[in-house]
Amino acid sequence: MADIEDTHFETGDSGASTTFPMQCSALRKNGFVMLKSRPCKIVDMSTSKTGKHGHAKVHLVGLDIFSGKKYEDICPSTHNMDVPHVKREDYQLTCIDDGYLSLMSDSGELREDLKIPEGELGAQLKADYESGKELLCTVLKSCGEECVIAIKNNTALDK
Description:
single chain; mainly beta; 5-stranded antiparallel β-sheet; 8% helix; hypusine; cytoplasm; ribosome binding
Protein backbone atom coordinates (compact mmCIF):
# COMPACT_ATOMS: atom_id res chain seq x y z
CA MET A 1 0.00 0.00 0.00
CA ALA A 2 1.37 3.43 -0.95
CA ASP A 3 2.33 5.93 1.70
CA ILE A 4 -0.11 8.79 2.21
CA GLU A 5 2.66 11.30 1.43
CA ASP A 6 3.05 9.78 -2.04
CA THR A 7 -0.62 10.23 -2.87
CA HIS A 8 -1.25 13.15 -5.19
CA PHE A 9 -4.66 14.76 -5.43
CA GLU A 10 -5.65 16.88 -8.40
CA THR A 11 -7.01 20.21 -7.29
CA GLY A 12 -10.34 21.28 -8.70
CA ASP A 13 -13.24 23.50 -7.91
CA SER A 14 -15.30 22.92 -4.80
CA GLY A 15 -17.98 21.23 -6.86
CA ALA A 16 -20.36 24.07 -6.15
CA SER A 17 -23.26 24.16 -8.54
CA THR A 18 -23.95 27.15 -10.76
CA THR A 19 -27.65 26.92 -9.84
CA PHE A 20 -29.88 26.00 -6.91
CA PRO A 21 -33.49 24.75 -6.87
CA MET A 22 -36.38 26.98 -5.77
CA GLN A 23 -40.09 26.28 -5.77
CA CYS A 24 -41.76 28.02 -8.71
CA SER A 25 -44.32 29.78 -6.51
CA ALA A 26 -41.44 31.37 -4.49
CA LEU A 27 -39.91 33.09 -7.53
CA ARG A 28 -40.43 36.87 -7.78
CA LYS A 29 -40.33 39.54 -10.45
CA ASN A 30 -36.80 41.04 -10.83
CA GLY A 31 -35.36 37.81 -9.44
CA PHE A 32 -33.34 35.31 -11.48
CA VAL A 33 -34.29 31.94 -12.97
CA MET A 34 -32.95 29.52 -15.58
CA LEU A 35 -35.15 29.55 -18.70
CA LYS A 36 -34.17 27.26 -21.61
CA SER A 37 -30.81 26.66 -19.84
CA ARG A 38 -29.98 30.40 -19.80
CA PRO A 39 -29.71 32.66 -16.71
CA CYS A 40 -32.59 35.16 -16.96
CA LYS A 41 -33.99 38.07 -14.97
CA ILE A 42 -37.74 37.66 -14.44
CA VAL A 43 -39.55 40.62 -16.03
CA ASP A 44 -43.11 39.26 -15.83
CA MET A 45 -44.89 36.40 -14.16
CA SER A 46 -48.50 35.36 -13.74
CA THR A 47 -50.18 32.47 -11.96
CA SER A 48 -53.21 30.64 -13.32
CA LYS A 49 -55.83 29.13 -11.03
CA THR A 50 -55.77 25.43 -10.32
CA GLY A 51 -57.71 23.44 -12.85
CA LYS A 52 -59.94 20.42 -12.37
CA HIS A 53 -56.96 18.09 -12.66
CA GLY A 54 -54.04 19.74 -11.05
CA HIS A 55 -51.71 22.48 -10.09
CA ALA A 56 -51.73 26.20 -10.52
CA LYS A 57 -49.34 27.07 -13.32
CA VAL A 58 -46.83 29.92 -13.26
CA HIS A 59 -46.08 31.68 -16.56
CA LEU A 60 -42.58 33.21 -16.47
CA VAL A 61 -41.10 35.76 -18.86
CA GLY A 62 -37.39 36.50 -18.50
CA LEU A 63 -34.60 38.33 -20.28
CA ASP A 64 -31.22 36.62 -20.69
CA ILE A 65 -28.88 38.57 -18.39
CA PHE A 66 -26.07 38.46 -20.97
CA SER A 67 -27.78 38.77 -24.38
CA GLY A 68 -31.08 40.43 -23.46
CA LYS A 69 -32.98 37.74 -25.41
CA LYS A 70 -36.52 37.04 -24.17
CA TYR A 71 -37.46 33.56 -22.92
CA GLU A 72 -40.77 32.20 -21.61
CA ASP A 73 -41.74 29.08 -19.68
CA ILE A 74 -44.74 27.63 -17.85
CA CYS A 75 -44.22 25.53 -14.74
CA PRO A 76 -46.56 24.06 -12.08
CA SER A 77 -46.31 26.27 -8.97
CA THR A 78 -45.32 23.35 -6.72
CA HIS A 79 -42.41 22.24 -8.93
CA ASN A 80 -38.82 23.37 -8.50
CA MET A 81 -36.96 25.50 -11.02
CA ASP A 82 -33.23 26.18 -11.19
CA VAL A 83 -32.11 29.62 -10.04
CA PRO A 84 -28.62 30.75 -11.13
CA HIS A 85 -26.05 32.09 -8.69
CA VAL A 86 -25.47 35.64 -9.95
CA LYS A 87 -22.57 37.76 -8.73
CA ARG A 88 -22.03 41.47 -9.43
CA GLU A 89 -18.66 43.09 -9.01
CA ASP A 90 -17.30 46.55 -9.78
CA TYR A 91 -13.85 46.94 -11.33
CA GLN A 92 -11.84 50.05 -12.12
CA LEU A 93 -11.05 50.38 -15.83
CA THR A 94 -7.30 50.90 -16.24
CA CYS A 95 -6.80 50.39 -19.98
CA ILE A 96 -8.39 49.22 -23.22
CA ASP A 97 -6.09 47.11 -25.41
CA ASP A 98 -7.04 45.45 -28.71
CA GLY A 99 -10.74 45.17 -27.81
CA TYR A 100 -10.06 43.82 -24.30
CA LEU A 101 -10.52 45.67 -21.01
CA SER A 102 -7.89 45.86 -18.28
CA LEU A 103 -9.85 45.87 -15.04
CA MET A 104 -8.60 46.21 -11.47
CA SER A 105 -10.54 44.90 -8.47
CA ASP A 106 -10.69 46.61 -5.07
CA SER A 107 -7.97 44.24 -3.85
CA GLY A 108 -5.65 45.38 -6.68
CA GLU A 109 -5.89 42.22 -8.80
CA LEU A 110 -5.75 42.84 -12.55
CA ARG A 111 -7.80 40.96 -15.11
CA GLU A 112 -7.59 41.32 -18.85
CA ASP A 113 -9.96 38.62 -20.12
CA LEU A 114 -13.16 40.59 -20.78
CA LYS A 115 -14.01 42.10 -24.14
CA ILE A 116 -15.59 45.50 -24.65
CA PRO A 117 -19.38 44.96 -24.52
CA GLU A 118 -21.28 45.11 -27.80
CA GLY A 119 -23.64 47.85 -28.87
CA GLU A 120 -24.39 51.16 -27.18
CA LEU A 121 -22.72 50.30 -23.86
CA GLY A 122 -19.43 49.44 -25.60
CA ALA A 123 -19.52 52.64 -27.66
CA GLN A 124 -20.21 54.72 -24.52
CA LEU A 125 -17.40 52.96 -22.63
CA LYS A 126 -14.89 53.68 -25.43
CA ALA A 127 -15.97 57.33 -25.75
CA ASP A 128 -15.79 57.95 -21.99
CA TYR A 129 -12.39 56.22 -21.72
CA GLU A 130 -10.96 58.21 -24.64
CA SER A 131 -12.20 61.47 -23.11
CA GLY A 132 -10.13 60.67 -19.99
CA LYS A 133 -12.92 59.75 -17.57
CA GLU A 134 -12.16 57.39 -14.69
CA LEU A 135 -14.67 54.55 -15.06
CA LEU A 136 -16.03 51.71 -12.95
CA CYS A 137 -17.30 48.68 -14.88
CA THR A 138 -19.98 46.48 -13.33
CA VAL A 139 -19.35 42.84 -14.24
CA LEU A 140 -22.10 40.24 -13.96
CA LYS A 141 -20.99 36.63 -13.47
CA SER A 142 -23.23 33.57 -13.69
CA CYS A 143 -23.08 29.99 -15.01
CA GLY A 144 -19.46 30.32 -16.12
CA GLU A 145 -20.11 33.47 -18.18
CA GLU A 146 -19.10 37.04 -17.44
CA CYS A 147 -19.73 40.38 -19.10
CA VAL A 148 -19.75 44.10 -18.41
CA ILE A 149 -23.38 45.20 -17.96
CA ALA A 150 -22.92 48.80 -16.80
CA ILE A 151 -20.38 51.60 -16.51
CA LYS A 152 -20.29 54.62 -14.23
CA ASN A 153 -17.91 57.42 -13.38
CA ASN A 154 -15.52 56.54 -10.56
CA THR A 155 -16.36 59.29 -8.04
CA ALA A 156 -13.91 57.87 -5.47
CA LEU A 157 -11.01 59.27 -7.50
CA ASP A 158 -12.44 62.80 -7.89
CA LYS A 159 -10.68 65.38 -5.77
